[in-house]
Amino acid sequence: MKIDSSNKPAATPSTPSAAGRARAGNTGGAAPVSSQTSISNASTEATLSGVQNVESVLASTPVVNAARVAEIKQAISEGRFQINPERIADGLLQSVRDMLASNR
User: Fold this and answer.
1) Rounded to an integer, what distance in angstroms lies between the CA atom of residue 90 and that of residue 83?
2) Residues 21, 27: contact at Cβ < 8 Å?
3) pTM here?
4) 97 pLDDT tier (thresholds 50, 70, 90)
5) Which long-range CB contacts under 8 A does 2-9 form with residues at least 24 apart?
6) What's the number of CA atoms in the CB half-sphere (13 Å) around residue 62?
7) What whole-number distance in Å separates Cα of residue 57 and Cα of residue 64?
């Protein structure tokens, strides 16, 4: 076997000719848009609009009720704040039940 030491560039794959694309059923243009695509686009736009509305409502809603926090701080400082362990336990158990139910 003889080794060719000339520096010829390697052959690169070429793109198919127009005739080759036509035989393969591909004209090289954009795929036709079906009515299903336009329905999907409208649905996506409606969904995005709904998400943006929810985001704007959430952005304007405070995360913490500042008035309630101030009220609790005042009650603690005055010694009027009472802890009800049964109520706390019931709330924790209900949270766990809700999480387990949502996973099913």
Assistant:
1) 13
2) yes
3) 0.34
4) very high
5) none
6) 6
7) 15
